[in-house]
Amino acid sequence: MSAIATVYAVFGSHDEAERIGRAMIDTRLAACVNILGPAQSLYRWQGAVEQAKEVPALFKTSAGLAERLIAEIAAMHSYDVPAVCQWPIERAAPGYLDWVLAETGAAE
């Protein structure tokens, strides 16, 4: 298992993804955020099937910061129940691993 993780989250707009992503970079909870193109989401919510355009994002962080990153994203998120989850990274290129750890302060 690697010392880094990816946190996946979806947002209601690109602006929200960017605002929260920038905050996570500024606080060094994430080294990088990839904000992806809009996605069509289908889901069941309060007994009804819904659909919406959402914006997925991938946050790169150290494994030790992932839980705190998830909590911070959820606290800033506009959804009542935001989809924010950790994807473990099994392997990573050594330079990338070192960069993520350095940028999140985990290498210090």
From TrEMBL:
It holds the Pfam family CutA1. It comes from the Bacteria. InterPro entries: Ion_tolerance_CutA, N-reg_PII-like_a/b, N-reg_PII/ATP_PRibTrfase_C. GO terms for biological process: response to metal ion. GO terms for molecular function: copper ion binding. Belongs to the CutA family. This is Uncharacterized protein involved in tolerance to divalent cations. It comes from Parasphingopyxis lamellibrachiae.
